[in-house]
C-alpha cells in the first residue's frame, strides 16, 4: 500500500511539473521598469501615510456592503444610504389584516416573510384572523432606506425618510406613519416608485417590510386565508405576542437575512445609490461628524442645499434608463474585498494578541509573518526587495512601495481605467473601494516589510536570529497596527458571538424592546414587558447595550431568556 501511495505521488508530481513547463512565461524576471507607471508614482504609495481623519470611503464601503442585511443594520440603526431597487416578478409578499377580510388597495404594508406579517393578523378566538399572500406580476420599482428604518425611535432613524417625504426632519411626526407613507408615495409617483423598503430589525416583528403605494398595479392575490389568530386581539404595550415562541421564531426568521447576501428578493441598483457619507455631494455633514464615532453619526445638520442635491441625484437615478449604467456588479466587487481580507486579518489580530506560553517568540513572529506574506503573495513584485545599500529605504520600507501599489489597485485598476463611463454613484463606490483597499494594503505591507527587515521572514532568513527584545518590539508594533486597521474598517462580519452559540441558541444583537426587561427581582412582570412607564417610552440612546449593541447567545427554546 505504501508503495502504491509513493508511486501516485511521483506521477502526480510529474504531471504537475509538465503542466507548468508547458506554459510559456511572459518573462522570466521583469525588472521594476517593466511596470510602466510604478517608477513615476511611487511617491504616492507612502507606507507612513494614514487616511485623513474625516475620510469616509471606508464608511461608504461598509454601508454599501451591508445593504439588505439585518445584522449590520441592527448594529448601526441610523441609516445613511438610499438606493433604488426592484422587486422581481414572482416574488411572494405577505399582509396580515388588522380589520378583517378586506383586501388593501393602497397605502399599506407588506412583509417578505409570513412569520412577520402573521404578527399583524388580528382576530379573536371565535373569528380568527385574515392573512393575505400576494405575488408580484411585473417588476415593482422600490426605494430602500438602510439602517433600522422601520423602527420609530427618536434618535435619527427616520431622518432619511423625512428628507425624501418632506425635505426636512420632522421629529414631531415620528410615529405618524400614515402621513409618512402618504407623502412618500406622493413623491414616488413622479418616478414610478410603488414601494419603500425598510429593515425592521429594531422592532419585535423583525425582518424587512415594504410600504406599498398601490396594491392593484403590480400584484395579484395568491391566497386570503382565515387563520387561527396568534394575537387573540390583545395589543401589549411593547407590541409583542402573548406567545413567547412566536416572538422568538420571528427573530429567528429574521436571522436568515442577517449576513451576506442578505435579502435576495429585492434587487438594488447600486449605480443609483445615494450616500450621506458622500462628502462631495453632501459636504455640510463633514463638520457634524468630526470627532464622533460611527454610532453617533446622524443626518441631522445637513444643509438645505445638500438636501436638494441629494434629492436631485436620487431623482436622476430613478428616471435614468437601465442601459446607461456600466453593468458592473458592485455588490460582488465589494464582497470580494471582504472575502479576501476579513478572515485573514482576523487571524493576524488573533495571533498578535496571543499569550505566549512555551512557544518561542521567534517562531510566533514567523507565524504572523507567514500570514502577512500569504495576503501579499499575488502582489509581491519580484524586483521589490530590501536595498543592501540604502539605510533610509530600509527604515521607511520605501522599497516595498511597488507591493503596496499592486495590492491596493488590484481590485479597481480595470474599473478605474473606464471611469468616464461610470455614473456618479459608481464613481463614489469606486473611490470607496480604492480608499478601503489602500489602507488594508498599506498596513499589511508595512507589517510584512517590517517583519522582513527584522529577520522573521522564513523566505529571507537572517544570518543571525534577531534578539528577543527586538521581536517583542516588532510584535507590539504589529499588534497596534492590526488593531487600528480592524477598528477603522469596522466590518460587521467580525461582529459575532464568541464562542459560537449552541444548537438551542441563536446569536442576537440587543434591540428594543426585546431584551430590555425589568430587573430580575420583579417576578410579577410579564416575560416580554419592557421598561415601560409614562416618562420613559424608549431606552436611553446614550447608555449600555442600546448605545453599543454587543452580540450574545439567547435561547431559541424554552426556557427563554436573555
What can you see in these coordinates?
With 562 residues, this protein is an alpha+beta fold. It has 18 helices and twelve strands. The chain has helices at 2-22, 38-41, 57-65, 70-75, 114-117, 159-166, 177-189, 244-255, 286-289, 304-319, 330-352, 361-376, 391-396, 401-409, 413-416, 424-454, 468-489, 544-547, and strands spanning 81-87, 92-96, 106-111, 129-136, 140-145, 195-199, 208-214, 219-227, 267-268, 274-275, 505-508, 552-555. The strands form three sheets. Strands 1, 3, 5, 6, 7, 9 and 10 form a seven-stranded mixed sheet that branches. α3 crosses α16, α6 packs across α7 and α11 packs antiparallel against α17 (468-489). The N and C termini lie far apart (56 Å). Residues 1-10, 12-36, 232-241 and 516-537 have low confidence and may be disordered.
Amino acid at each position: 500500500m505504501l508503495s502504491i501511495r509513493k508511486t501516485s505521488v511521483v506521477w502526480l508530481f510529474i504531471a504537475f511539473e509538465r503542466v507548468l513547463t508547458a506554459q510559456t512565461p511572459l518573462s522570466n524576471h521583469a525588472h521594476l521598469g517593466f511596470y510602466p507607471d510604478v517608477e513615476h508614482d511611487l511617491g504616492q504609495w507612502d507606507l507612513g501615510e494614514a487616511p485623513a481623519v474625516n475620510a469616509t470611503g471606508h464608511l461608504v464601503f461598509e454601508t454599501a456592503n451591508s445593504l439588505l442585511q439585518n445584522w449590520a443594520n441592527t448594529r448601526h440603526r441610523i441609516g445613511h444610504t438610499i438606493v433604488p431597487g426592484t422587486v422581481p416578478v414572482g416574488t411572494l409578499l405577505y399582509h396580515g389584516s388588522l380589520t378583517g377580510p378586506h383586501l388593501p388597495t393602497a397605502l399599506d404594508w407588506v412583509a417578505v416573510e409570513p412569520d412577520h406579517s402573521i404578527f399583524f393578523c388580528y382576530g379573536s378566538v371565535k373569528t380568527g384572523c385574515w392573512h393575505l399572500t400576494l405575488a408580484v406580476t411585473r417588476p415593482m420599482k422600490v426605494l430602500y432606506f438602510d439602517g433600522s428604518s422601520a423602527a420609530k425611535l427618536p434618535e435619527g432613524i427616520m431622518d432619511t425618510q423625512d428628507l425624501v417625504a418632506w425635505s426636512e426632519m420632522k421629529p414631531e411626526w415620528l410615529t405618524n406613519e400614515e402621513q409618512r407613507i402618504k407623502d412618500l408615495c406622493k413623491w414616488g409617483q413622479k418616478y414610478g416608485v410603488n414601494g419603500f423598503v425598510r429593515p425592521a430589525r429594531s422592532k419585535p416583528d423583525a425582518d424587512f417590510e415594504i410600504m406599498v403605494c398601490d396594491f392593484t398595479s403590480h400584484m395579484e392575490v395568491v391566497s386570503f386565508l382565515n387563520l387561527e389568530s396568534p394575537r387573540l386581539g390583545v395589543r401589549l404595550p411593547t407590541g409583542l405576542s402573548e406567545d413567547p415562541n412566536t416572538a422568538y421564531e420571528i427573530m429567528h426568521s429574521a436571522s436568515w437575512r442577517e449576513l451576506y447576501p442578505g435579502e435576495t428578493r429585492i434587487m438594488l441598483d447600486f449605480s443609483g445609490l445615494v450616500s450621506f457619507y458622500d462628502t462631495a455631494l453632501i459636504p455640510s455633514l463633514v463638520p457634524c461628524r468630526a470627532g464622533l464615532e460611527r454610532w453617533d453619526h446622524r443626518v441631522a445638520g445637513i444643509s438645505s442645499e445638500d438636501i436638494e442635491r441629494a434629492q436631485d441625484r436620487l431623482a436622476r437615478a430613478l428616471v435614468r434608463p437601465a442601459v446607461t449604467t456600466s453593468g458592473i456588479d458592485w455588490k460582488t466587487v465589494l464582497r470580494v474585498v471582504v472575502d479576501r481580507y476579513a478572515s485573514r486579518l482576523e487571524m493576524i489580530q488573533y495571533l498578535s494578541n496571543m499569550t505566549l506560553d512555551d512557544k518561542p517568540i521567534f517562531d510566533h513572529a514567523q507565524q504572523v509573518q507567514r500570514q502577512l506574506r500569504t495576503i501579499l503573495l499575488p502582489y509581491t513584485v519580484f524586483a521589490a526587495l530590501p536595498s543592501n545599500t540604502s539605510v533610509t529605504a530600509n527604515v521607511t520600507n520605501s522599497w516595498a512601495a511597488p507591493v503596496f501599489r499592486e495590492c491596493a489597485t488590484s481590485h479597481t485598476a480595470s474599473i478605474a481605467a473606464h471611469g468616464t463611463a461610470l455614473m456618479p454613484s459608481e464613481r463614489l463606490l469606486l473611490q470607496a473601494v480604492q480608499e478601503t483597499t489602500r489602507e488594508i494594503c498599506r498596513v499589511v505591507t508595512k507589517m510584512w516589510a517590517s517583519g522582513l527587515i527584522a529577520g522573521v521572514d522564513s523566505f529571507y532568513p537572517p544570518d543571525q536570529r534577531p534578539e528577543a527584545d527586538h521581536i517583542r518590539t516588532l510584535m507590539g508594533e504589529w499588534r497596534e497596527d492590526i488593531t487600528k486597521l480592524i477598528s477603522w474598517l469596522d466590518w460587521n462580519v467580525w461582529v459575532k458571538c464568541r464562542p459560537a452559540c449552541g444548537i438551542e441558541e441563536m446569536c442576537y444583537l440587543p434591540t428594543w424592546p426585546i431584551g430590555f426587561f425589568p430587573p430580575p427581582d420583579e417576578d410579577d412582570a410579564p416575560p416580554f414587558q419592557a421598561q415601560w412607564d409614562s416618562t420613559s417610552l424608549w431606552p436611553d440612546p446614550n447608555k449600555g447595550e442600546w448605545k453599543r449593541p454587543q452580540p450574545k447567545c439567547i435561547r431559541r427554546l424554552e426556557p427563554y431568556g436573555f
